[in-house]
């Protein structure tokens, strides 16, 4: 087993990230327990002293296409209570059109960490065993109970504009195209 000590992070702008809190009841400097579950697994590391994410590695050669590809990292991780693991893209792969999908690891998850990748540009992207494929961020999360209530009494400027409404101040019809 390998214990990695996290770097203290500060949540900037709680309003821009409403699900995250700077709750001081949770240990922000405690170790993150990580272990290998495959002989070719590489333990995640930070690319620099100030890096927020831990680099995750592929344990075998893979080709990422427009279909979802599941990449095994060969590691397990114990996410600290009051946090979740957020699997995020690496900018170098994003520039090639590789998208990371479904990136939440709950604190009570105990399986192997896998990363869902997809080529959004249409061209297959070859990954080699040992390539860095994504980043893992450990983020505090508010775990309050859901309480049923009435609609908010205080109205915001956004009101009920809906998805994408802040980029559409004149309520013009927006048409979205999906690839099926």
From TrEMBL:
<keyword id="KW-0460">Magnesium</keyword>
<feature type="compositionally biased region" description="Polar residues">
    <location>
        <begin position="165"/>
        <end position="180"/>
    </location>
</feature>
<dbReference type="GO" id="GO:0046081">
    <property type="term" value="P:dUTP catabolic process"/>
</dbReference>
<keyword id="KW-0546">Nucleotide metabolism</keyword>
<keyword id="KW-0378">Hydrolase</keyword>
<comment type="pathway">
    <text>Pyrimidine metabolism; dUMP biosynthesis; dUMP from dCTP (dUTP route): step 2/2.</text>
</comment>
<dbReference type="InterPro" id="IPR029054">
    <property type="entry name" value="dUTPase-like"/>
</dbReference>
<dbReference type="InterPro" id="IPR008181">
    <property type="entry name" value="dUTPase"/>
</dbReference>
<comment type="similarity">
    <text>Belongs to the dUTPase family.</text>
</comment>
<dbReference type="GO" id="GO:0004170">
    <property type="term" value="F:dUTP diphosphatase activity"/>
</dbReference>
<dbReference type="Pfam" id="PF00692">
    <property type="entry name" value="dUTPase"/>
</dbReference>
<protein>
    <recommendedName>
        <fullName>Deoxyuridine 5'-triphosphate nucleotidohydrolase</fullName>
        <ecNumber>3.6.1.23</ecNumber>
    </recommendedName>
</protein>
<dbReference type="GO" id="GO:0000287">
    <property type="term" value="F:magnesium ion binding"/>
</dbReference>
<dbReference type="InterPro" id="IPR033704">
    <property type="entry name" value="dUTPase_trimeric"/>
</dbReference>
<keyword id="KW-0479">Metal-binding</keyword>
<dbReference type="GO" id="GO:0006226">
    <property type="term" value="P:dUMP biosynthetic process"/>
</dbReference>
<comment type="function">
    <text>Involved in nucleotide metabolism via production of dUMP, the immediate precursor of thymidine nucleotides, and decreases the intracellular concentration of dUTP so that uracil cannot be incorporated into DNA.</text>
</comment>
<feature type="region of interest" description="Disordered">
    <location>
        <begin position="158"/>
        <end position="180"/>
    </location>
</feature>
<feature type="domain" description="dUTPase-like">
    <location>
        <begin position="41"/>
        <end position="166"/>
    </location>
</feature>
<dbReference type="InterPro" id="IPR036157">
    <property type="entry name" value="dUTPase-like_sf"/>
</dbReference>
